[in-house]
Amino acid sequence: MSAEAEKLRNEIIAAIDAAQDMRALEDVRVAALGKKGSVSALLKTLGGMSNEERQINGPLFNALRDKLTEAIQAKKAALDSAALNARLSEETLDMTLPIAPDAQFQGRIHPVSQAMEEINAIFADMGFDVAEGPDIESQFYNFTALNIPDAHPARQMHDTFYMQAEEDGEALLLRTHTSPVQVRTMQDGQKDKSGPPFRFIAPGRTYRCDSDQTHTPMFHQVEGLVVDATTHMGHLKHTLEAFLAAFFEVENIAIRFRPSYFPFTEPSMEIDMQCHRDGDKLVVGEGNDWMEIGGSGMVNPHVLRHAGIDTEKYQGFAFGMGIDRLAMLKYGAPDLRSFFEADLRWLKHYGFVPIDVPGLAAGLSDKSLAALSADK
Question: What does pTM read for this prediction?
Answer without folding.
Answer: 0.66
